[in-house]
Design a protein that fits this description.
The chain is of the alpha/beta class. The chain is built from eight helices and nine strands.
């Protein structure tokens, strides 16, 4: 079996869901250290043809894990994010699909960044037809240095292959722990294909599928332009 282990991020990009689709077990590294100005609490949308950041305000001191990071609900960020999504995608053909995520964003019972991110990711995954394959690293009680912990998690889940996002290649190869383990190390090959983005102007001032295409946006942009069914096919294609 194949395993992937990732920190839960806010409204992730399509490649995140490709990784989920490619494995048997997907483990959220929910106790990973929070990093300011990272994808943990923000992502990018395409609003009226321009790239805009959408950010969850958090309260933190020191270097706590994502499962201990509380969000600042006093700033009414949930309603602001929903309004931002309405303004940016309200006239897109598949806006109704985006609306189905609003209750996950607006769930005030979820107060930590890890809980909010995981809840949203799980809901999107269900709409994409991805089987329930999620676990939280914090529930496995496995402690070890970074790469060794990944290996131990794979072993605990009886997985013979670890699929890593390409961005982690350098540090995984540098650590060298996989080379000395029975776990096979593989790297994700996903590359986002251009798709029609409503409101984005091409190089000659015309809307189009490729000129000026903005890649690596939140999955929300893909869904709003393509709908659930086509997005499910999009995240599975290489």
């Amino acid at each position: 079996m194949k395993c992937a282990i990732m920190q839960p991020t806010y409204l992730p990009w399509a490649g995140f869901f490709n990784l989920i689709a490619e494995v048997d077990h997907f483990v959220f590294l929910d106790d990973a250290q929070f990093s300011k100005s990272s994808w943990h609490n923000r992502n990018r949308l395409l609003i009226q043809g321009e790239t805009k950041w959408i950010t969850v305000p958090v309260a933190h001191s020191g270097l706590p894990g994502l499962d201990a990071i509380a969000v600042r609900d006093a700033q009414n960020w949930r309603r602001k994010h929903i309004n931002m999504l309405r303004a940016g995608y309200g006239r897109h053909g598949y806006f109704a699909d985006i609306e189905t995520l609003f209750d996950a964003i607006d769930d005030t019972a979820l107060t930590t960044l890890a809980d909010i991110n995981i809840n949203i990711i799980a809901k999107i995954s269900r709409h994409l037809g991805l089987a329930d394959k999620f676990l939280r690293a914090s529930t496995l009680a496995i402690e070890a240095p970074r790469t060794q912990r990944l290996i131990k998690i794979c072993e605990a889940l009886d997985c013979g292959e670890y699929l890593s996002p390409a961005g982690a290649r350098d540090y995984l190869l540098e650590d060298g722990d996989f080379a000395a383990s029975p776990i096979e190390l593989a790297f994700q090959q996903y590359r986002p294909r251009p798709y029609f983005q409503k409101g984005r102007k091409g190089q000659e001032g015309q809307e189009g599928a490729e000129p000026g295409f903005v890649s690596h946006l939140s999955i929300v942009d893909v869904i709003a332009n393509m709908g659930w069914e086509n997005t499910a096919a999009y995240i599975k294609s290489l």
